[in-house]
Every structure is written in C-alpha cells, then in structure tokens.
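Same chain as my last thread, 223 residues:
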Amino acid sequence: MQKKRFYTELAYIIGLLTLAFSTAMMTKADFGLSMVVAPAYLLHAKLYPTLPFFTFGMAEYIFQAALLLLMICIVRRFRVKYIFAFVTAVLYGLLLDLSLSVLSFLPTNLLAVRILLFVVGLVVCSFGVACMFHTYLAPEVYELFVKEVSDRYHFSISKCKTVYDCASCLLAIVLSFAFFGFGTFIGVKWGTVVCALVNGFLIGRISAFLEKHFSFVDLLKRK
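reply #2:
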C-alpha cells in the first residue's frame, strides 16, 4: 500500500491545535486533567485568586520554561531548537486560553457532557502528541522532554512517555496537597490516573498507525 504524503509542518500545526483544545475539553470535564498539564493547572489555581491575569495558558508556558531548564541539565546539552520549544509553549498557552473561552458555553453540569469531553479529550490529546513527535519543528517542552531524553539515552519513546506521565502525576498530587491541604485533590482526580496509565500506550498506537499510512516529509526544508 502506497503511503500518503503528510507534511511535518502540518503535523506541527495540527498537533498544537489539538493539544490546546483537548486540554480545554478535559479542564471543562473536571474529572482530572492530564498529568502532564496538571502541575501547571495547580499553579494557575493557586495564584489566580490573587492574580486574576494569571491564566491557565500563562501558567503553562512559565512551568514549561522551568521544565526546559531541567531537561537541559538531564541531557547535558543545549540546542537552538530548545528556544523555539518555549515559543511553541507560548503559542500553546494562548490557544489554550482561547479554547477555554470557546468551550465556556457548554453545559458542564450534565454528566454525559462531562464524560464525552473527557473521553474525546484524552484521545485527541494522544493524537496531538503523536503529531508533534513527527515534525522537525520544536514541540512543546513536554513532548521535547520525552523526545530528547529517549534519544539521548536510547529509551523507547512509549515507555519513556509513560514514566514521565507517572512522575508528573505524582508531582501534581504533591502540589495539590502543598497548595490546598493534605487530602485535597485539585485538578488531580481519577481521570488523571487513567491518563497516566493509558496515554503512553495510545500515543504509541496512534504513532504506529500514522507511520503505516503516511510518509512524513518536510515541505519547507525541501523548498
């Protein structure tokens, strides 16, 4: 079967849009956010009451800046694309705030709506990450962290992603207790645990599907 051409620049755009929108969907569902974004959400939840301008999107790129510094220490190297990863994080943050505004009209008091938002958000999030893994353009720091560490130490991306997700889940629980009191779960609920357990698997399967049916090529580099 001949593979269809899929431009990596398009994969970047689709990945960025779907990641922002899926995060907004899971935020509205309120069953627990993806463990990847939960720490940033907790930072937003803690500071927003006193700093109303501190949006979820802003918390995202500030947290990712700190994560970028940690990644540089772990891989023990610096590349120019790391700077562009932060630019991607800022774009993602802006799109996230926009997506939350778009979804603000949904009747989230209905359980069926919340369940649908969570399930669709989980799958769309995994698709977005898989797209970002197939572009030379700098992904968000979350995806870059997994990609660079797995490349540097020759780990499986799927397994590395699962370990990273579980570590993020643990960090989110610690922050929730530290910010809002022991036993209080803000943004970290049963849905967060589900994400930690299945995200790596879903990303691996979606990536395999994309690679089976599409040939990823660089449009701008070719020109």
